[in-house]
Design a protein that fits this description.
Strand content: 15-25%
Number of helices: 13
Strand order of the largest sheet: 1-12-9-8-5-4-3-2
Number of strands: 12
Order of helices and strands: HEHHHEHHEHEHEEEHEHEEEHHEH
C-alpha cells in the first residue's frame, strides 16, 4: 500500500483518478439478471479481478471493490446474509491484489435499500450492518471505505460513523443528486449538495462528493455548490457516461470517452480533486479522463 493516505497525496495538488463502472462491466462479463454481483467474489473471483485490474491498467490511482451491495440487508435478498463478512473480505482482497502496493483500494459500501422514514430499520440497524461490512473490508486490505450512492443523510452518516469508529481507514462519502424542476440538485430524499457535504464531514468523512445520476456536465454545478459549502474539503466525483437511454430493452450510456474527457478541465476548475466514473464507464473512459486531467 502507499505510504501516504489519499488526503495527504491530495495536498500536493495533483488530481487523482478513480475507476469506472463495476456493475455494467460485470454484466458484460456474463452476470445475469437476478444474480448477486457480490457473490462473484467467492464464485468467480478471477472475473472480478480482471475488472479491477483493467482499471489499474487504464491508469486509475485507486479502485473500488465488488461490494456495493455487500451489506447484510442486501445479501439477505439472495439468501447470503450469513456470508456477509466472507464476501466483503474477499472483495477487498481481490482489489488489493489488483491494486498492488502502489495504488489505493477504496472499498465500496452502497445503500441497504431500507429507510428509517418507512419504519424498515433504525439508525442502530444501519450502524450494525455497516460496521460488519467495514470490518470485513478492512480485514481484506482496503485503504479506505467509499460510502456511495446514498440519498438519505441518516443512512450515509451511520455508514461513515461505522467505518470511522471500527477501522483505521479513511472514509469517502458520495451522494446521488438529480436536477429538480426548479433547477436545484437534490437527492431522492431531498438532500442538497451543501447539506450532504457538511453532514458527511461532521460525521467524520475525510472526502466528500457525488456519484451516479449525472454525466460529467451535470456534475459541474454540483461540485461548484459543494466547493462553496466546504472550501477546504477534498471532493470526489464518479460520473455516469451520460444518462441512460433504453435501446431495444437495454440501457445504453451514450457518452464516449472523448466526450467525458472534454469536460474534465471544467470539472477540475469547479473544484474536483478525484475523478472517476460510475454507470456505463469503462477502462477506455478512465484512460481518457486520466489524459485530460493533466
Amino acid at each position: 500500500m502507499r505510504k501516504v493516505k489519499i488526503t495527504e497525496a491530495l495536498k500536493e495538488g495533483k488530481i487523482l483518478i478513480s475507476d469506472g463502472a463495476w456493475g455494467t462491466f460485470l454484466q458484460a462479463r456474463g452476470l445475469k439478471p437476478g444474480q448477486c454481483p457480490e457473490y462473484w467474489c467467492l464464485e468467480r473471483p478471477d472475473e472480478v479481478f480482471l475488472v479491477a485490474k483493467s482499471y489499474i491498467d487504464a491508469g486509475a490511482d485507486m479502485i473500488e471493490t465488488n461490494s456495493f451491495g455487500g451489506s447484510r440487508f442486501k445479501l439477505a435478498h439472495y439468501g447470503l446474509a450469513e456470508k456477509t463478512f466472507e464476501i466483503n473480505e474477499a472483495a477487498a482482497r481481490i482489489s488489493r491484489k489488483a491494486a498492488g502496493s502502489d495504488h489505493w483500494v477504496i472499498a465500496s459500501v452502497g445503500p441497504t435499500g431500507k429507510m428509517t422514514a418507512m419504519g424498515d430499520v433504525t439508525e442502530e440497524d444501519f450502524y450494525s450492518a455497516f460496521q460488519e461490512q467495514a470490518k470485513a473490508l478492512a480485514k481484506g486490505g482496503a485503504d479506505a471505505i467509499c460510502v456511495e450512492t446514498m440519498s438519505a443523510l441518516d443512512e450515509a452518516t451511520a455508514a461513515i460513523r461505522a467505518a470511522r469508529e471500527n477501522t483505521q481507514l479513511e472514509v469517502l462519502c458520495t451522494l446521488t443528486f438529480q436536477k429538480t424542476v426548479r433547477g436545484e440538485y437534490r437527492t431522492m430524499m431531498g438532500v442538497s449538495p451543501t447539506d450532504a457535504a457538511k453532514a458527511s464531514l461532521e460525521a467524520g468523512a475525510h472526502i466528500v462528493g457525488t456519484n451516479c445520476g449525472n454525466g460529467i456536465e451535470g456534475m459541474i454545478d454540483i461540485v461548484k455548490e459543494i466547493r462553496a459549502a466546504v472550501p477546504d474539503a477534498p471532493i470526489l466525483v464518479h460520473a455516469n457516461a451520460g444518462l441512460p437511454k433504453n435501446i431495444n430493452g437495454r440501457d445504453v450510456f451514450p457518452e464516449t470517452p472523448e466526450k467525458m474527457a472534454s469536460l474534465v478541465p471544467a470539472l477540475i476548475r469547479a473544484g474536483a480533486n478525484i475523478i472517476g466514473g460510475c454507470c456505463g464507464t469503462t477502462p477506455d473512459h478512465i484512460r481518457a479522463i486520466k489524459k485530460a486531467s493533466g
